[in-house]
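Why do we bother with holo predictions? Because pocket geometry can differ from the apo form. Keep that in mind while you read this record for MU-OXO-diiron.
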Amino acid sequence: MGLIKIVVMVSTNIENALNKQIRIEAESSQIYLSMACWAESKGFEGVAEFMFAQADEEREHMLRLLKYLTERGGKAIISELSKPSTDYNSPKQMFEEVFEHEIFVSNSINELVSLTFEEKDFATHNFLQWYVAEQIEEESTARTILDKINLIGDDRSGFYLFDKDVRSMIAKPSAQ
Ligand code: FEO
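The structure, written out:
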């Protein structure tokens, strides 16, 4: 006789909130893909590579949520996505938007964690801890890059080194 896997299904509220987060992560991936294209068009190859890697990471974040929701008996919904900006005034403006976006994502994760308490869904609570840690990392990286840009100021040769430097900051895949 085979083993019967008993899974406690997620509540409708948790299912909806996880689907909302799935969309946010997918939109993050699109935003960073668009930023990568802009950076490449302006000759910032290191920044472009960094943003392409970020876009891949966000897709991984989306997939991780999707698989979890499915495992817990929920239905993952793939929805339409908002069109990201396609133009930026400068790398500085672009990374300011990255930073603001990551704060928005962190707030959304925090709301989700708070909902797991209300719903007494401690499995989802545990699952989300990876995202809580990841957001600290992502906000910190964006802040570090903005600090570097502010140090450079208007020094054009500084941007050449900055571009190389950002390439070296591409995150290694996180532990599962
Ligand atoms: Fe998956 Fe950058 O938030």
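The chain has a mean pLDDT of 93.
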